[in-house]
Specification:
364 residues, alpha+beta, Cytochrome-c3 Hydrogenase, chain B, three-stranded antiparallel β-sheet, 13 helices, 8 strands
């Protein structure tokens, strides 16, 4: 009688397809994965602890770095928490500007994911195509905010300045639909892509609930949960949350493609709401000696990688007593414990890549 032997294998942290320093300790029976233990923390920056020693205005530029591919969302989270704590209402123009910037940021994030995901699977051309379109958005952000990644454009009670270069946004949303069609022609029904993604990494609904998965990964498993539908910023905007039943890596890809189209619709509506020549009215909060009333504050937003939220405990000081971020990627990494078991080693990167994990969100 021979004993069954397994092999322990380290996948990462120095690996070109882990999109950051993520170490997966895999136990293999031949080529089949028996267990997976994610080992995070290599990138830990102490972003939450830093907040305890910084005033709110000092910490605001730092929020963009929680997820450097979706900085607008975390900046918005911190701003809305302070605004609600202080009872400040935003004007319709400010809310519309924020929605437009958030959705442009969502598109840029999804485009990077599409390119990187296909690169993981060995397809080089889609990466360059996705980067080409993403570059249009980054150039617009640079013209508006002065930054390509860490925008620091939202401020407590408003925005740094009125939105400008509207024609650039109009050009972006005019070009994107045709480019998305090109992506689908190359990718969606490609037999190699189907072989690598169809039926791989099945995320059942009960597992998604147990692992607190949110965002596109949840909606691709047939659960309609998009908090934009109840977000006060999106009041009056018409869009349809993307919900698919596939539950696999292909469904998660397709859901993000469809979400690009919905974001374009939201931006179009936002541009229609903006009135040319309208004066920007803001209720800016003076950041000097800004203090939140004593208490606990919580807010959430639909970020590209799932539900993002912030919890702040204030003692009435000008610094948070405690600040805690909830990020989608952290829960997606934990999900790999379940999702990779029973799959083959050569599918591990494709499955983990389909979840759109970014390590700064994990090691925050």
């Amino acid at each position: 009688m021979t004993m069954k032997k397994t092999l322990k294998l380290n996948l990462g942290p120095q690996h070109p397809s882990t999109h950051g320093v993520l170490r997966l300790i895999l136990e293999l029976d031949g080529e089949k994965i028996v267990s997976c233990e994610p080992d995070v923390g290599y990138l830990h920056r102490g972003m939450e602890k830093m907040a305890e020693n910084m005033t709110y205005i000092q910490y605001l530029p730092t929020a963009d770095r929680i997820d450097y591919l979706a900085g607008c969302f975390y900046s918005e989270l911190l701003c809305r928490t302070v605004e609600k704590a202080k009872g400040v209402e935003l004007s319709q123009r400010v809310k519309t500007i924020r929605v437009i910037l958030l959705e442009l940021n969502r598109i840029a994030s999804h485009l990077l994911w599409i390119g990187a995901f296909l690169m993981d699977l060995g397809a080089v051309s889609p990466f360059f195509y996705a980067m080409r379109e993403r570059e249009m958005i980054l150039r617009y952000f640079e013209k508006l905010t002065g930054q390509r990644m860490m925008y620091n454009y939202f401020v407590f009670g408003g925005v740094r300045k009125d939105i400008d270069y509207i024609e650039d946004i109009e050009n972006i949303i005019k070009i994107l639909p045709e480019k998305i069609k090109d992506y689908e022609k190359i990718i969606t029904d490609n037999p190699i892509f189907l072989k690598r993604t169809k039926g791989k990494g099945i995320l059942e609904q009960d597992v998604a609930f147990n692992y607190a998965v949110t965002g596109v990964n949840l909606r691709a498993s047939g659960i309609e949960y998009d908090i934009r539908t109840t977000d006060y910023l999106y009041e009056g905007f018409k869009f349809k949350p993307v919900v698919l039943e596939g539950k696999d890596s292909w469904a998660r890809y397709k859901a993000r493609i469809l979400e690009l189209k919905e974001s374009i619709k939201i931006i179009e509506q936002g541009l229609n709401i903006l009135t040319y020549g309208e004066k920007l009215e803001q209720n800016l909060i003076n950041p000097i000696n800004l203090k939140l009333p004593e208490g606990e504050y919580y807010n959430e937003i639909e970020a590209p990688r799932g539900l993002a939220s912030v919890y702040i405990k204030s003692t009435g000081d000008d610094k948070p007593y405690r600040l805690k971020w909830r990020t989608g990627s952290y829960y997606s990494v934990n999900l790999l414990r379940k999702l990779l078991v029973g799959e083959y080693l050569n599918d591990a990167i494709a499955i983990s890549g389909s979840l759109d994990i970014i390590l700064p969100e994990v090691d925050k």
